[in-house]
Design goal:
- By secondary structure, the protein is mainly α.
- It contains 49 helices and seven strands.
- It has a five-stranded mixed sheet. Strands 6-7 form a two-stranded antiparallel sheet.
- α10 packs across α13 (300-326), α44 packs parallel to α46 and α45 (1151-1167) runs parallel beside α47.
- The termini are far apart.
Length: 1259
């Protein structure tokens, strides 16, 4: 019947493992019972069950002399049934011997399942394994007992799935050898030249084979051999540590099923031809991590060579594995076949090698195999048998009975000579035993028909006739030899016969005569004399009934007191095994028997005078001596337990049990205070030692700091490179890795380790201490005799430990008032902090240290020791937050002062109008502000958010809020100072990472030019005032929940003021150049505006002024395109103002002067029309009015319109001639639907040529 899911099957190992009071199992009539709960309630005492725990109790339960059981006892036993014992299989045996022709018999599926209830071989195996309910021990026993079927057992059931689990042996070389060859060729080619990876180009380009060199072949071949060697290690390692992971296998159905699928099914059915090699999909999954590891550890060429060698040996391994199970093999492989089959049928825990034994020898897992290779003919002759399977007793003398056999046979190890002399060799290796016996001419069961059918099936009549003649000649020759032998030794034969007859006659007349009853009479006489002697010696003893009764009484006393006499030894065994509770129970039981049932153990006899006397008094003295030994053993146990109370590594539960035992034993020393005092001393010593070793490690790390960081310039350079790496890492997925490895991390890690070790010591020892102390305060563990020490002293001990922890941390970080008063007021940071660590790394480690302190404080506060402890810890955390905030602010401002050194002038990807520096500034401020908020308690310390817009968890104190705000604003002002410093002429690009004259990859310009840096800084200032500062202030307001509008306006005003100053420093020199050209051209001494003739062209000064603006436009557009409008608008306004001032100095214009002035101003107006602002437009209108008012009309000036048309023509020609030079001033074409440009033009008051013409008409 199938096994029910409710009844679990166990092995004997499972039963034997549960043999103590904590877990007591027994078996009765094949069922397994868990009687742990019943042990203490057993009427006959728990000893009777515990002595038989983990065994079969059927015999002892039926033994009425030991303990009689009623029917209700057997019914009660059924309540504790948990399963049954499985049948032990015996297929695998240490006596198994390897033979060359091993052919196991097929398994009877029905009989096997009925016997073992393991797996039904007629049903799919996987579903049975998944639903099975047997223990791991039983599974391992059964799965390593081989079964054999003619056909492969079904694993899944459906045919489609079955095909995925069955693999013919030649599939392995067909799949993996081409891959190995491809990888080997790739390795050779990759040693010669670069080539794409296997994923990019799976097919190997055969055309390049001619390019391969001998050196590449040698390198690839070396890697190939290395892969062969690595595979032998993997073969052994996977087989032993993965396929045979029996001891570490969890006792769960899912893991047992995985084990069965991976390798268990092969041991269960080792001769299954279709499951001897690994399916390609399974090997592909197993090889993936190893090939990945090879590519990680080695270059691609080396990895491919190694993998090709490993794959080749894998193919050899799988094919050889199949051959070891099903193929006749040469000598070496025949030895490996016997060795591997012994792994299946003799001992599956040894012999893991398949292709060789080398690693078995190295790791001492070699499996000894006895090879049975003796020739069968030799066995038959040695044991005088005619067959290897005799059915009756027989004794054949081969030498005397058939002396002619040597004539016609020539027996070899594996073949037999042809007695007919026809030249054929009889191959005996491929024959079974019966066929071999019938074919061998030396066998008694030789059959001529079988011999001819097996050896000469195609012989002709003539061949047989020749064979008979050869056989007859051989027999005749041998007969002649025998005749000569007999004639030469006839006298010897006669002498031997006479000697034998004489010996037999003497024996018949003496020892074997009828009168001696065939040699039995002397023996009978000896036995009779021995019986008489025994009666004389033992009969008086047996007849003395009183002595016999006394002896029986004494024996009964010792039998009845067997427990008491064995008590010292039992107690010693329990103590040695660490079973102190069992020892205490046994001691109490012995003490009870001694005090209350002493008469049952030793019946006391009284003498005639009424006093105890006789043998019983001697027995009582023996019992007292036994008890003194018991007390001595218990005294040793008391000393041992008192010493264990002082062991700090024991758990609270173990210590509580030890204290309870010692209290019950009523020791002279109070065990609870022994524990408290030892723990107090140990914890205090450990914390002090951890602090001292931590300070030493910190000092050692500080001594290894590079000396160049002590120099201000060297420190600035170091901090600059640290900040570059840390800020770059903040944009990656794991910035903590880089930040935690930056400058000074060795010192910070030593500080963190010191804090962590002190906290771990506290948290590993104090909870156990306080758990026991709380129980003691609540009244537990009290001695009956009382104690002079108060239970409240436990709280004081815990408080002393906590005060030491707080004082040491306060001393190190300058948190306590005493240390604060002694520190240097100019250096608020603790002395042992790294000075060369950047602010991001400092914030990272300070947060880690604060988390460690806070977690420790929270856990200790949760113990609810005393209110003072919680108060001290809260003050410690608050002081640490404030001090760490001070440390952060100090390094924050220091790094902000140096932050301008990080300017690389690289345009930002999101906004090319500004440099990457602005975004680094944003990231830097956001990260440090977030860290400061964590110290203040506004954000959880464990939060990984990089934005300080996170909803605060607790209210931030106003003092902390003011500190963070001030640090934030001071850092921004420091950034602004750094930006201004970058525009100074003294600043050189050589101070950066790049060399002089290095150009940005996307904006080619010279950074040593002050104007270039001015334009870049101006662009950054625009971004600062318009976007960055408002955003940062908004985030700060969101984090604090208060308005910072005043700080926002102040910052924006400062930025705008700096922007105006820098803008003027750039524009003023340019404007001076342009206005100078205009002024010199207008007020040229050689120019008489009253007498000058009508213009025919525009004078050169106007072209020079315009070309100067073109050069400025080109510089601005190349460096910062967003500033073009602002710069050109300003320059045009200055040019218009200068033109107005210059023309105001001209008192009168003639017709020619008025037309020339109009032409030149209109040329400038139309050329720069895109950048003419409303203010410039107004200035030009005043200029036109000035020229009109200063015009002095003279006779002959009547034809003004014709002259104006001529001016228009000259203007148009000049515009066309300079259209390319002044193309940068043209208005950009608007797209349909776009209004941005027109609105911008309107806002700037841009004038069109038409509006200028109208003004001229007005003139």
């Amino acid at each position: 019947m199938p096994v029910s899911k409710r009844v679990r099957i166990y092995a004997l190992e499972d039963l034997a493992a549960h043999n103590c009071a904590q877990s007591c199992w027994v078996t009765f009539k094949g069922k397994v019972y868990d009687v742990t709960a019943f042990v203490s309630d057993h009427p006959g005492g728990d000893d009777l069950i515990l002595n038989n725990a983990g065994t079969d109790v059927e015999a002892i339960m039926k033994d009425k002399d030991s303990h009689d059981h009623s029917e209700s006892a057997y019914e009660m036993l059924e309540e504790y049934v948990i399963g049954r014992l499985g049948t032990e299989a015996t297929t695998v045996s240490d006596d198994w011997e390897a033979t060359d022709n091993f052919h196991p018999e097929d398994t009877d599926s029905v009989e096997d399942f009925e016997k073992t209830q393991f797996l039904n071989l007629r049903e799919p195996l996987l579903w049975q394994m998944w639903n099975a309910n047997f223990s791991k021990s039983y599974y391992l026993k059964q799965v390593h007992q081989p079964r054999h079927l003619k056909e492969s057992a079904r694993l899944f059931g459906p045919t489609v799935l079955e095909l995925c689990t069955r693999t013919v042996w030649y599939v392995v070389p067909l799949v993996w050898l081409p891959i190995a060859v491809n990888l080997f060729l790739r390795s050779m080619l990759q040693f010669t030249m670069p080539m794409p990876t296997f994923r990019e180009a799976p097919l190997f380009p055969l055309s390049v084979l001619s390019l391969l060199s001998t050196e590449a072949f040698v390198k690839a071949l070396s890697c190939f051999f290395l892969g062969n060697f690595i595979w032998t290690i993997l073969e052994y390692g996977l087989h032993r540590f993965l396929f045979h992971i029996d001891k570490l296998l969890p006792d769960r159905p899912v893991f047992l099923t995985l084990h069965f699928l991976l390798h268990g099914i092969h041991h269960y059915m080792p001769m299954d031809r279709l499951r001897l090699v690994m399916p390609p999909m399974l090997f592909a999954a197993l090889q993936a991590p190893f090939t990945w590891l090879a590519h990680v550890l080695f270059p691609t060429a080396v990895a491919n060579g190694i993998i090709s060698g490993a794959f080749t040996f894998y193919v050899l391994y799988d094919c050889m594995h199949y051959a070891l199970h099903h193929t006749r093999l040469p000598a070496y492989m025949r030895e490996m076949k016997r060795y591997h089959l012994a792994h299946h049928y003799k001992n599956f825990e040894l012999g893991f090698g398949v292709t060789s034994k080398i690693w078995d020898y190295l790791f001492n897992t070699v499996l000894p195999v006895v090879s049975v290779g003796v020739d069968e003919a030799s066995l038959l002759k040695a044991y005088k048998l005619t067959t290897l399977s005799p059915t009756k007793w027989e004794e054949v003398d081969y030498d005397l009975e058939d002396p002619l056999l040597n004539i016609v046979t020539s027996v070899g190890g594996d073949s037999d000579g042809d007695p007919l002399g026809l030249g054929t060799t009889v191959d005996l290796r491929s024959m079974d035993t019966e066929t071999k016996a019938s074919v061998m001419i030396s066998s008694k069961s030789f059959d001529p028909k079988a011999f001819l059918a097996a050896v000469h099936p195609n012989a002709t009549y003539q061949d047989l006739a020749v064979g008979i003649s050869h056989l007859q000649a051989s027999i005749d020759a041998r007969s002649e030899q025998v005749r000569v032998l007999v004639e030469d030794n006839f006298d010897r034969f006669v002498a031997v016969k006479a000697s034998t007859d004489a010996l037999y006659a003497d024996m018949r007349e003496g020892l074997l005569s009828d009168a001696n009853e065939y040699a039995s009479k002397p023996l009978i006489n000896h036995l009779k004399r021995s019986a008489v002697k025994a009666n004389q010696v033992f009969l008086p003893v047996l007849e003395n009934s009183a002595k016999a009764q006394r002896l029986r009484t004494t024996l009964s006393v010792f039998e009845r007191s067997k427990f008491f006499f064995s008590l010292p030894g039992s107690l010693a065994e329990f103590i040695e095994a660490g079973k102190y509770e069992a020892a205490l129970r046994t001691y109490n039981k012995g003490k009870f028997l001694r005090d209350s049932r002493q008469g049952q153990m030793v019946p006391v006899e009284f003498s005639a005078n009424g006093k105890p006397g006789g043998p019983m008094s001697e027995q009582k003295r023996i019992l007292e001596k036994v008890w003194s030994n018991v007390e001595k053993v218990m005294g040793e146990m008391k000393s041992l337990l008192l010493s264990k109370l002082q062991e700090p590594s024991r758990s609270a539960e173990e210590q509580e049990k030890t204290i309870e035992i010692l209290l019950e034993l009523n020791t002279s020393e109070d065990p609870i205070w022994t524990y408290f005092d030892s723990q107090h001393t140990h914890i205090m010593k450990q914390i002090n030692a951890s602090y001292r070793s931590g300070v030493e490690a910190i000092n050692k790390s500080l001594s290894e700091v590079p000396p160049e960081t002590s120099d201000p310039d060297g420190l600035s350079t170091s901090l600059k490179f640290q900040l570059q790496l840390c800020l770059a890492s903040l944009e990656t997925k794991q910035p903590e890795t880089t930040i935690a490895q930056s400058g000074g991390h060795e010192v910070w890690e030593a500080i963190f380790e010191m804090t962590k070790n002190m906290s771990e010591i506290l948290l590993s020892s104090l909870p156990s201490f306080w758990k026991i102390a709380r129980s003691f305060i609540e009244g537990k563990f009290k001695r009956s005799s009382g104690s002079r020490r108060s239970a409240q002293q436990c709280s004081q001990i815990a408080l002393d430990i906590m005060k030491l922890y707080v004082s040491l941390l306060s001393e190190f970080f300058n948190l306590s008032d005493a240390v604060v008063m002694q520190r240097n007021t100019n250096d608020p940071s603790p002395k042992l902090l790294p000075r060369h660590s950047n602010s991001l790394t400092t914030a990272h480690f300070l947060i880690k240290i604060l988390i460690e302190i806070q977690d420790c404080a929270n856990e200790v506060t949760g113990m609810d020791i005393v209110p003072e402890t919680s108060s001290n810890l809260r003050n410690l955390v608050a002081s640490a937050r404030w001090k760490f905030g001070d440390i952060l602010v100090r390094v924050w401002l220091r790094d902000a002062t140096l932050f301008h050194l990080l300017e690389t002038w690289t345009p930002s990807t999101p906004d090319p109008s500004v440099t990457q520096f602005m975004f680094l500034l944003d990231v830097f401020q956001r990260h440090l502000t977030t860290s400061a908020l964590k110290f203040a308690g506004g954000i959880e310390l464990s939060s990984t958010s990089s934005s300080f817009r996170t909803i605060q968890q607790n209210q931030i104190s106003p003092a902390f809020m003011a500190k963070i705000t001030k640090a934030f604003l001071d850092a921004v002002y420091a950034f602004l100072d750094g930006l201004v410093l970058l525009t100074s002429p003294e600043w050189s690009i050589t101070t950066e990472n790049s060399g002089p004259g290095q150009q940005s990859p996307s904006k080619p310009f010279d950074l040593n030019d002050v104007d270039t840096r001015l334009l870049l800084i101006l662009s950054n200032f625009v971004y600062l005032s318009g976007t960055l500062i408002p955003n940062m202030i908004s985030q700060l307001e969101s984090a604090f929940g208060v308005s910072k509008e005043e700080d926002r306006h102040t910052l924006v005003k400062v930025v705008q003021a700096l922007d105006r100053r820098l803008f003027d420093s750039y524009v003023k020199p340019k404007s001076g150049t342009v206005t100078k050209i205009l002024r010199e051209g207008i007020l040229d001494r050689e120019m008489d505006w009253y007498e000058t003739p009508q213009p025919t062209e525009i004078r050169p000064y106007m072209f020079r002024a315009s070309m100067t603006l073109v050069e400025i436009h080109a510089q601005v557009s190349r460096v910062s395109e967003g500033l073009i409008d602002r710069v050109i608008y300003t320059l045009v306004e200055d040019a218009a103002d200068e033109a107005l001032r210059s023309f105001q100095q001209v008192k009168h214009f003639g017709m020619g002067g008025m037309l020339r002035a109009t032409l030149e101003i209109e040329f400038m107006h139309q050329t720069l029309a895109r950048y003419v602002s409303p203010a410039a437009t107004k200035t030009l209108s005043e200029l036109y009015n000035k020229i009109s008012m200063a015009y002095a009309r003279r006779p002959g000036d009547e034809n003004l319109q014709r002259h104006l048309d001529n001016v228009k023509r000259i203007l148009a020609e000049s515009r066309r001639a300079t259209s390319i030079e002044f193309m940068c001033f043209r208005q950009a074409k608007e797209k349909n639907g776009s209004k941005a440009t027109s609105e911008k033009s309107k806002s700037k008051g841009e004038s069109t040529p038409r509006s200028a013409g109208q003004k001229r008409s007005a003139v």
